[in-house]
């Protein structure tokens, strides 16, 4: 009785039949990074195997709008976080609870009559500027937002978020799906 061992590709080749790898290649193709037809070197009889260098080049190219920008809003603070689409980890974050905003927060906290919100459109704009700078530092040129989530926010939050998205765009970060949002104010 002979046991057949599965045929494994050489270590310099990567099997793209795995869903995450396939999605990374498809996203890269959509962004004009590489095409699988360019990499017919050595293993052209097996269409699901690409050279490892090609896969690494495809996944390392700067993606213009694959990262998700999420806003966490409360009456006390605004937090912007950018997550990686592959493993959903946070890669950049800015918040109004950082040390830079402590002076304004204490001033609003100690005033009488008490304020309902401890952040406004000016602080939202500064948080947007900070997240834009942090994204540029790590080499991300674009993000996307969930427009349904943004449209479902109460109107008093949406009024204050217009300057946030404007300041992100001013730092030369493309925000996909922000065109459909109507910000009042």
Give short descriptive properties of this protein.
185 residues; alpha/beta; Nucleotidyltransferase, domain 5; 2 domains; two-stranded antiparallel sheet; 7 strands; 17% strand; ribonucleoprotein; Ribosomal_uL18_bac/plant/anim; ribosomal protein
Can you put this structure into words, describing what you see?
Belongs to the universal ribosomal protein uL18 family. Keywords: Ribonucleoprotein, Ribosomal protein. With 185 residues, the chain is of the alpha/beta class. It has two domains: 13-60, no CATH class; 67-176, Nucleotidyltransferase, domain 5. The protein contains six helices and seven strands, in the order βαβαβββααβααβ. It has helices at 19-30, 52-60, 102-109, 121-137, 147-151, 155-170; strands spanning 13-15, 49-51, 67-73, 78-83, 90-95, 142-144, 174-176. The strands form two sheets. It has a five-stranded mixed β-sheet, covered by helices on one side. The chain has a two-stranded antiparallel sheet with strand order 1-2. It starts with 12 loop residues before the first strand and ends in a 9-residue tail after the last strand.
Task: Furnish the topology, listing elements before pairings.
Elements: E1 13-15, H1 19-30, E2 49-51, H2 52-60, E3 67-73, E4 78-83, E5 90-95, H3 102-109, H4 121-137, E6 142-144, H5 147-151, H6 155-170, E7 174-176
Parallel strand pairs: 3-6, 6-7
Antiparallel strand pairs: 1-2, 3-4, 4-5
Helix pairs in contact: 4-6
Q: Name the CATH class of the largest domain.
A: Alpha Beta
- Main β-sheet description: 5 strands, mixed
Count helical runs: 6
Integer average pLDDT? 75
Fraction in beta strands: 15-25%
Going by helix content, strand content and strand pairing, the class is alpha/beta
Shape: globular
Oligomer: single chain
Q: What helical percentage do the residues reach?
A: 25-40%
Q: From the coordinates shown, what is the CATH architecture of the largest domain? A: 2-Layer Sandwich
The CA-CA distance between the termini, in Å, is 77 Å
**Secondary-structure element order, as H and E?**
EHEHEEEHHEHHE
Number of domains: 2
CATH homologous superfamily title of the largest domain: Ribosomal protein S11/S14
Cα-based radius of gyration, to the nearest Å = 22 Å
Low-confidence residue ranges: 5-14, 28-65
